[in-house]
Amino acid sequence: MAAAKNIRNNLIEEYFHMGFSCKEIIDCLFLNHELNLSLRQLKRVLSRKNLGRRRFSSFDEVVDAIEEELNSSGSVVGYRSMWQKLVVNHKLSVSKEFVRNALRILDPEGVERRSRHRLQRRQYHAKGPNFIWHIDGYDKLKPYGFCIHGCIDGYSRKIMWLQVGRTNNHPGIIASYFLDCVQNVGGTARVIRGDFGTENVRIAAIQRYLRHEADDSMSGEKSFLYGRSVSNQRIEAWWGQLQRSASDWWMTHFEQLRISGLYCDADVVHVECLLFCYMAIIHEELQRVARLWNLHRIRPSTRNNSSPHGRPCLLYQHPEIAGTVDYKHDVVIDDLDVARHMCCDDLPMDLSPEFTALAEVIMTEEGLRVPENANEARTLYITLINEINKII
């Protein structure tokens, strides 16, 4: 009994730190874990754990966390996204108004820079979660060797995957992202939409294979739709969010390396060293960006009344809340194994094994550790370049 209560209380604390409201916590406990809890019981648990939105964290804690974020990709986000970073990543309790005012003081130039007008877009409608997924590659960091690929659920706007690698044009790599996602959620979307291009030929073949026996109007060949990039508006619009929340900062970071003469894309040592030092850091950054997006609350749209509002993760997991259904097409593991064997064998590696072995030897000799942030990655990059130049 005590163990079950501890599990329940830990779930409550986890949902609280995701920024969920009391109603959302109660709904998640019931829908995800079959736990019935009244509002009064929930408030009692939160009180015992000293968790409350009105018990604000100390001024110094909040300012220190904001300054930490401003020294990385947090410098390109607005106050709402900064507030979510503080709540989810730093587990702080703070009001949005405090964050807004703090940013005006700590980052006035950034506040002014982010005061831009939004683009007017066409209205979009999807019937429910897993009705349609949109896939696309993102090339803003490609000049530095980091190729991003993502997928978004058209209805809920949940990010299904957000990956980085040495390439986003190899059809086997894209197929592996898709198969990992399908295996994770237990099925595929009724329809997938992607751009014309060789990178999508295998994912299209797999999707049509998985859906060839379905009896709906979008089965078989119709289950993968090709279109122009500008028509794939759900994922194209979200790339703007990625640029504001992360990639702008990274582009500036790498461009400073180039301007200072520390990086040249014609130098194979520089290219391999940059990938070795930064690939894992950027991967973790993308996972944080996707998680924060999936947890944030989308406000009601004044331009598209058919677009649901709420948190992407909840809109995706519990379509009944918004009066719709899940359109997921269930798949069997044997079909996934066949697809993986046929389409994902002999994939190119993100990092050169030879360079990795050399870099690890140098790190051991110099007493260097695996970097955990951009500044540590920059220090490691410069050290490795200098040590390798001594050898060659």
From TrEMBL:
Among InterPro entries, the record links this protein to:
Integrase_dom_put
Q: Which organism is it from?
A: Acropora cervicornis
- Return the protein name: Integrase core domain-containing protein
The protein's superkingdom reads: Eukaryota
Ranges for the Integrase core domain?
124-308
